[in-house]
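Subject: Predicted fold for Amino acid ABC transporter substrate-binding protein, 345 residues

User T.R. writes:
Posting the sequence so we have a shared reference for the thread.
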Amino acid sequence: MSTLELHNISKAYNGVDVLGGVALRVDEGSRTAIVGPSGSGKTTLLRIIAGFEVPDRGQVVLQGKPLAGDGVWVPAHQRGIGFVPQDGALFPHFSVAGNIGFGLKGSKREKQHHIDKLMDMVALDRRLAKLWPHELSGGQQQRVALARALSQQPQLMLLDEPFSALDTGLRAATRKAVAELLAEARVASILVTHDQAEALSFADQVAVMRNGHLAQVGQPQELYLRPVDEPTAAFLGETLVLSAYLDQGWADCILGRIAVDDSQRSGHARIMLRPEQIQIGLTPHLSLRQAVVTSIDFAGFVSTLSLRMADSNETVEIKTISREGVCAGSIVSLKILGQAHIFAD
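User M.O. replies:
I've generated the structure tokens; pasting them so everyone works from the same file.
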């Protein structure tokens, strides 16, 4: 069963198209990430879902009920949608308890019971209830914002880059905690981010947005391993793209003969390998492709090796895990794991 359906959503500002016919389905209790570069239209799409913007064309449907389109317009406060913005947007003149309890109905005792329950749900110490927002850490502020959004028992939760202001370690921990919380509460959610790693780790479904259109939608691993085109492949992570000649499930390229993921394709094509599919060996092996390391760009955990193939003098750059013993002049062997992906024509 779907929680949200978007049909042909379009939006323009001053004659410039920002969204062009976006269609998306979000299943009940699932986590979707909309990822794309700045200016791709992802935040505009989120604001249309929330009810902060009106689409020029198309329809927004929540649990079978039209919210926008075809003459229908349900205002944001009546949609049953929670929204957590990038900065949390806590009320500075309210305490933590005041922020979480904002909009709750019932007696003072009933409100306090709900606030305590929500603080437990988002793993906030109840002793923080009397503090002001400026007295909290960034991660604590985001949890308060999430608790406030959950207090309205939303059918859908929208997250607009809520982790971007957090330090790297705290960002990962907070993201994991939020994902687990939403899954436990069975609340469908949409995360908007420009961070591909964040999208891949958070979501059950990833939608890659480019120039106001969804370039590809699917499960994270599917998009990472089988992107629809080169820009999508590059946006989702490091990649090695090569020209090749295809024949009966194999590709001949600079790295030799490689298995590919479509045995029906033939002729010239572009293929893709992820860095983890290329295993660099220091011990020469007669059955493997040999290359000479001409230079190394060391960046800690990862290094970029410039290689000159031993049998052709062609050159290629490969990112790999840094390891001791590999230096300029080293002879290495290359082993390809799995299949290369063939881009569509």
